[in-house]
Amino acid sequence: MTSGEDSFEAFVLAHGAGLVGFARRLTLDHHRAEDIVQDVLARIGLSWAKVSRVDDLRAYVHKAVLNDFLSWRRRLSSRERPADLSWHHGEPVPGVDDAVAARDHLRLALARLPRVQRAVLVLRYYHDRPDSQIAELLGCREATVRSHARRALLALRAAPTGLTGDGDLTSEGTLR
Amino acid sequence: MTDEHADLRSHLHDPALDEGISATGLLAGVQARRRLVRRRQHLAAGAAAAVAALVVVGAAVVTTRQQPEPVTPAQQPASSAPSSPRPSSPRPSSSPVTTSTSPLSSPLPTTLPPPRARLDPTAEPRLSTGAREAAVPSAQPNR
Fold first, then answer.
1. N or C: which end of chain B has fewer CB within 10 A?
2. Which of residues 10-69 of B touch A (CB under 8 A)?
3. Tell me: the pLDDT tens digits for B44-60?
4. Is A152 exposed, middle or buried (CB count within 10 Å of its CB: 0-12, 13-18, 19+)?
């Protein structure tokens, strides 16, 4: 086994879990997240001798995962549909933790967002990236990033089980 | 920062989203996918080579078939073409066309004359060069 292969395996072992976590937040689907990350890492591994010379390799691979998530090929192939979890939370079930229910409701609202809006929220509130970096990653202007974020937050707030201004998540399907 | 932002941030940082991720399992999947990608690349390269060979052979065949054939001289028409302009002079309707006086109407000899030897069996045989030279002085008149 060559040293390049060793360094590639070391990179996957060191950063693979973080990449899958990032992809899970983008896709909200564990299997699709692993699919994206494996696809990206396999392609990078084939040209590892060249890619390994990139300055910030971790940021490079994160951007590759983001691009794959937003790519038209992935959109055509995956046929992503937001999961319909309404049957699961249609009636309040006694004994179920409200926090768990609220988390699932927020997750459902996130799943209904357009991909680019979800990516903006993940980059802004999970990676804590400034809008300028998000705009650079997405290849758009900062004003566009702010517009995406504003629309996403409005959609989450307007969702039947969306965010509320006082910090609680509604579970009754109405805004407080 | 508003509370809704904090809610969203806490949701996205939920450690439950990071559960069950196996780095070694991911590495195994990546390596399997790399082998798959390599195999696809080999197949694609083989298919491309086969297509290129077919294109080259096909182009050669087409080029060979499209070469112009050797030019053959056009044959003279045996009679005048029907579309050729006719003389404007009216043809005499009562006078029949006479072809008996035409020299072209005479039939060509179909048999070749017999060889000279057969025509003149008494003729002398042709002499060789030496014999002809020897015979010349005797043929000259005496001066």
1. C
2. 11-14, 16-18, 20-24, 26-27, 29-30, 33-34, 36-38
3. 999 999 999 999 999 99
4. buried
